[in-house]
Amino acid sequence: MSGNLGLVLRRLRDQGPRSRARLAAELGLTRSAVSALVGELEERGLVRAAGVERGHVGRPGTSVELDGHAVCGIGAEINVNHVSTIALDLGGNVIAEHRAGLDANKLAVEEVLDRLVALIARTEADVRSAGAETVGVAVGVAGLLDRTRDMLTVGPNLGWRDVPVGAELRGRLGAAYPVLVDNEGNLAAMAEALPGDPARQDVLVIFGEVGVGGGIVADGRLLRGRQGYAGEFGHMIVQPGGRRCGCGRVGCWETVVGLRALLDAAADPDDPVRDPALGLDDRLAEINRRADLGDTRTLAALDQVGGWVGIGAGILANAINPGAVVLSGYFAEVGERMRPAIEEQLTAGVLAPQAGGTRVELSTLGFTAAVRGGAALALEAVFDDPTLVGRRTEAVSEGVR
């Protein structure tokens, strides 16, 4: 039963409102079965009536749509310069969002985790205030993550090694709901692969902040690799003899396309835009402001970094031929200025004509991509088994007791 409930719920998420008759035809179920399933989902507060369906062959019927305003997933992120959280309801609406700046390199691992847990607790309190319940938390972390143990084996930019992030967070939160851990690039890729959008089912997502990573989505599924380490694009060697990377090697792609590379090229060491105390959004806004004013050094820096982005994207596109390269994180904030250089090098680097049909797109999620992907991952449990959410009558009875 829970399997068919999940089928109905996913169909409404991916394809939008539809009548019971249409759901029955699309899912290969009887109308009576679908009516019973929709009734149960309504009792659990996961769907609601959405008016009369029009424009479909056959007799008009009352359509139903995803509701789930009382169910939230929380996404969280640990990065070099910040910890952040977001709570999304089942329909993808933002219920709460928080971010706190820090310098992870100067703090003990325990303090960074404590700050994240405090932010999660604050977000969960906001969810309760909105009359909703949290069904899970998924945390993105920058670095190589062994998902079988929820162990961050190497976090070059964080300076972490062999940190049992999952166990540490679960111990601190003591929550009844699941606490998941994943690579932040994977979570960003999940957020960009929009359910129901055929143009986003085969994409390469490049997520940049201090470090650079991302994810590969093929036929709507995230490719994790044998041990879950896929997507560490930032550590491809593209410039032998170049700058030393945080991972200890020389010439990684990250060293020529990461945020540090852009700031080094765009400004002198004493320039305010290089000051870590200045918020990341403010620093990038200043870069864009200078570019808009025609500052030659800024424009040259964006062109230089954009060229390297295109070179790396071309290497990856030759291997997997994605429908789109989606630029996320800091790349999305300054990407319009980089786009010409990216597209030029992508086209030059891909063997297939017209870059094999691969287009360059800018994420609209920016720095929230990873936490949004985390919230979506946390909510997947409900789509897998909607019975995890109690019937409203059960909830009332629990409250009376």
From TrEMBL:
Descriptive protein name: ROK family transcriptional regulator
Domain HTH marR-type: from-to ranges: 8-49
Organism: Nocardioides caricicola
Family of the protein in this entry: Belongs to the ROK (NagC/XylR) family.
Highest taxon listed in the record's lineage: Bacteria
PANTHER family, sorted: BIFUNCTIONAL UDP-N-ACETYLGLUCOSAMINE 2-EPIMERASE_N-ACETYLMANNOSAMINE KINASE, ROK (REPRESSOR, ORF, KINASE) FAMILY
